[in-house]
Amino acid sequence: MRQSIVIAICMGVGCGMFPMLVCAQDLLVSGRFNHSVIRYDGQSGDFIEVFAEGGGLINAIGMDFDPDGHLYVASGDLPLVNRYDGQTGVFINSFIFDDPKTKIDETGGLAGARGLVFGADDNLYVSSGISDQVLRYDGSTGQFMGVFAQGDGLDGPIGLAFGSDGDLYVASALSDMVIRYNGSTGQFVEQFVDTGDGGLNNPTGLLFGADGHLYVASAITNQVLLYDGQSGDFIDVFASGNMSVPIGITFGPKGDFYVASFQTDSVIKYDGISGHFLEVFATGGGLDGSHFMLFGPNIGDLNGDGSVSVSDLLILFSNWGSCDTCIDCPADLDDNCTVSTNDLLILFANWG
């Protein structure tokens, strides 16, 4: 009975109880010319704050969360990827960078960090836009592991996405195609979307939807194009209008579709099924040159099943008290090296 009362009370807490923490529905948008990541309310689109900046970040472009919820941001025209606290936006460290005090290039030749994505192996993959490569780094240390993919038409890579088949799909902006590489070896598999198919011109962001199909932003034609997720065949124009130079694309928690419109410094919202325009969702707050987007990490999803539920609650209780190590203590949601009532409230604020 007492446990039921506690749960009922905590379920009413809501994300507003913790305005300094990113909740699962908050939208983060990188701005190329404001050199930072802006946070917007994921329900209303209202500006909340400049979330992540500093650490030498210039031309913020690609973003992703690691399995522990830390935020990684690519510094577009530099060999630099920074790591920030995924809940507070506080700068942690330069995760990938070239140390000027050494003779070697610790980045492995990273030239213009564009898109980035964590793979199933928990390593970080970064598109090097100037050198026309995808580089792989140790997801824990940032150590360069090697050139993962290159060649076979890859020219000006930007967006990266792993498919359900485990292979890596790369938006090759300057050759107007999407290239598929083996997700384990990096070997070329095929030109998945042929040059210009469906009118594709300067592909930037790409993702696989819940329907299994591939969505690709076509920056020059101001469209999002839809391709068969198995064959790469063009299906249709999914969304168009009200966007100007689309870059990043993403589905929201409720299934709506969002496009970062670079020229208008805004995020446009479309129906996630029909692609019909709904509204200019987010703008302002200093956003200049909107690039990529992420909805906040699913804070409290301790078992990694995509939701926060009783299973995660039990994991939190099993780790109650002081952490053995502050670095590896996933139930410590407020990063104070102790699993306590505050972590419990944060978990319930992100329930569902």
List the helices and strands and how they pair.
Layout: H1 2-11, E1 27-31, E2 36-40, E3 47-52, E4 60-65, E5 71-75, E6 81-84, E7 91-96, E8 113-118, E9 124-128, E10 133-137, E11 144-150, E12 157-162, E13 168-172, E14 177-181, E15 188-193, E16 203-208, E17 214-218, E18 223-227, E19 234-240, E20 246-251, E21 257-261, E22 266-270, E23 277-283, E24 290-295, H2 310-318, E25 321-322, E26 338-339, H3 341-349
Antiparallel strand pairs: 1-2, 1-24, 2-3, 4-5, 5-6, 6-7, 8-9, 9-10, 10-11, 12-13, 13-14, 14-15, 16-17, 17-18, 18-19, 20-21, 21-22, 22-23, 25-26
What report would you give on this structure?
It is a single chain. By secondary structure, this protein is mainly beta. The relative contact order is 0.13. The chain has a four-stranded antiparallel sheet with strand order 3-2-1-24, with no helix packed on it. It folds into two domains: 1-21 and 305-352, no CATH class; 30-295, TolB, C-terminal domain (Neuraminidase), CATH 2.120.10.30. It has helices at 2-11, 310-318, 341-349, and strands at 27-31, 36-40, 47-52, 60-65, 71-75, 81-84, 91-96, 113-118, 124-128, 133-137, 144-150, 157-162, 168-172, 177-181, 188-193, 203-208, 214-218, 223-227, 234-240, 246-251, 257-261, 266-270, 277-283, 290-295, 321-322, 338-339. Helices cover 8% and strands 39% of the residues. The chain contains three helices and 26 strands. A hairpin with a 4-residue loop joins strand 21 (257-261) and strand 22.
